Amino acid sequence: MNIFRLAGDVSHLVAILILLMKIWRSKSCAGISGRSQVLFALVFTTRYLDLFTVYISAYNTVMKVVFLALSYATVYLIYMRFRNSYDSENDTFRVEFLLIPVIGLSFLENYAFTPLEILWTFSIFLESVAIMPQLFMITKTGEAESITTHYLFFLGLYRALYIANWVWRYHTEGFYDQIAIVSGVVQTIFYCDFFYLYVTRGEEIRTPS
Amino acid sequence: REFTSIHDEL
To answer: A112 in the Ramachandran plot: left (φ > 0), alpha (ψ -120 to 50) or beta?
Structure first.
């Protein structure tokens, strides 16, 4: 554990909490892509199956359970509790275009051809593109509420901090996880355009139409 | 023996 990794995890947690609290307090999930949130729940589910096979640390176990619970709570709020406010007309990204290549790639490129490893690889690849339905929705409607942009900012910051963590770990432990690093860099690149808008235009984002 | 890699990151 190093400061970049810890800051990255905290940033990830903050992002998820911002979104959940926004939906809970406003009793509305307008402008939020339910499809992205389902993909993130799928990411956590397939990645954290090792909760049942290996024990790493109390921190690790607690964070995994928290991320799983929060992601399912978010999906529940969007599709059940506040489904009247769900903007399904603008949440139309075809997730099969993400899922099919990601499933294919996780079978081709993995550390071991075992069910758990393939699912772990699938989750890493899927995470790198899971935000695309949300970004697509913002492009389609041409706007995002400021609180939604804070969510995206912390979500992007989390992966950027993980890159710093990987650089640190490579230099101090000689550790590197090729699949995670490549996907993490790709994931961070998806946020760069958003970061640029966030900084230059302020919190409330309107894309030029 | 089955491969067991430890993914210690979240």
So the answer is: beta
Token digits of residue B2 = 């089955």
Structure tokens belonging to residue A62:
């607690």
Over chain A, what is the mean pLDDT? Answer: 95
Q: Which amino acid is at A118?
A: I
Cα A136–A187–A177 angle (5° rounding)? 155
pLDDT, tens only, A132-155? 999 999 999 988 999 999 999 999
Residue A76 structure tokens: 């529940």
Rounded to two decimals, the ipTM of the complex is 0.85
Identify the segments of chain A with pLDDT beneath 70: 203, 208-209
At B3 the pLDDT is 56
Residue A30 tokens read as 């307008």
Encoding tokens for residue A178? 């090729």
Is B7 in Cβ contact with A60 (below 8 Å)?
A: no
Verify whether the Cβ–Cβ distance B9 to A114 is below 8 Å: no
| pLDDT digit string, tens, across residues A170-198 | 999 999 999 999 999 999 999 988 888 88
| Torsion angle, alpha carbons of A49, A51, A54, A56, to 10 | 130
Q: Which of A54, A155, A181 has the most B C-beta neighbours within 10 Å, making it the best mutation to test the interface with B?
A: A54
Residue of A111, A112, A180 with shortest CB distance to B9:
A180
Round to whole Å and give the CA distance between A146 and A150.
6
Tokens of B4: 């067991």
